[in-house]
Amino acid sequence: MEYISTRGNVGKIGFIDAFLMGLGDDGGLLVPSEIPAISAAKLKEWQNLSYQELVLEIFSYYTNDEIPQEDLKKLVNDSYSTFRDPEVTPVRKLNDSLYLLELFHGPTFAFKDIALQFMGQLYTYVSRKQNKTIHILGATSGDTGASAIEGVRGKEGIKIAILHPNGKVSKVQELQMTTVQDSNVLNLSVEGNFDDCQRIIKDLFADLDFKANNHLCAINSINFVRILAQTVYYFYAYFQVVKQTGSEQPLNFSVPTGNFGDIFAGYLAKRMGLPVNKLILATNENNILERFIQEGVYKPGGFRSTYSPSMDIQVASNFERYLYYVLDENPAQIRELMDGFKRDGEIVIPADALARVQVEFAAHGVQGQECLDTISKYKTETGYLLDPHSACGVAASDVRSGAQEVTISLATAHPAKFNEAIALCGIEQQFPEQIEALFSKPQRQTQVDGSAEEIVRELVQFYNA
Ligand SMILES: *Cc1c(COP(=O)(O)O)cnc(C)c1O
Is the distance from CB of 127 to CB of 158 less than 8 angstroms? Predict the structure, then answer.
């Protein structure tokens, strides 16, 4: 398997080069040169694999044989040995038509750990094998930063710098990032919102000299390896539900969405042959993607701070990958649309393409009160405490509850990370001890204004220290 860019001017390149390149050098996103088709017989064989075995099977289609099998196996086992649940991503039944896929059993209590524990191991492996300096740079709406830092803190040959929007992440998210004392970690607290942080990062990655001189690598979901690691749990969850229901009917997946990374992983799983009915895209009030799916117009609206801050995103960095596929893999058209987006601030797709979008996706934007009501309702009716992001997913799947379908809704974070919303529901929760312990640790972060110049200055100083 080799990798190409949605804008047509990279490649073909191998798996490790794609991993290190992150954002395509032509400004596009890297995608596999073809999507492997998994047969029904193969799916059946995979049903009884452990999570780790399934990772190895799926990765074998994508790694271009660049990592010896024994090495890959060790990387995968080390990545998931840090999880608190032996199943890694267990599935819980909430009622006959709704299952929850719990993705928050990793070290930082959010789903980002699933890909970033692996990427941390892989960066360390590549750095050692190729004797390479690796400087990770990322923007976070809260969870990616904590998770990426956890994946590489204290690792030799690696430094990590993370931009987060000052005051716009939850208290626990902030503490998880800023109480890490390892000297290979830099937290920049940026005046602005997540879109500002993400734009600065994307511009730095697009400056190829700066990127090469500073050995920059990306951990945001612009990195295809992150998407790939997340594809695994769609398969795994489907198999667990099939085993419980005895039916191999296609299932819905409801996905709390910000950057379109997680739901794109679901789309990839479907394209590989997983029996998926609808991908239900759940947003909060920052609903650019809901509007795209309803109307075929991709146009950022005003930024809103919500109870689900990890989804407070207007410009979804992964959206271009999906556009590429829904418009029949035509790089010239993607270049034109993305240029138009830069110029006019919107993308409009043709009616026939919108019809195809609506076959694959449903969408629902969840309002603040609706999010809190969903948390309260499920706590009362089932005893299960949803975090506000997972509640958006469940609320969006509830919209279709009359349809006689079975939905797996992704639980993307542990409620203890977002106690601000839980407290508003009048619910008192017990914090896991790892989270409780954060409150007594000293914090370390650097405040910066939103200017690219100041951020570049801080980065260069850190990377060269
Ligand atoms: C990152 C995140 C999301 C959104 O995922 P995307 O891949 O950006 O769409 C949803 N919920 C939580 C808790 C997150 O951390």
Answer: yes
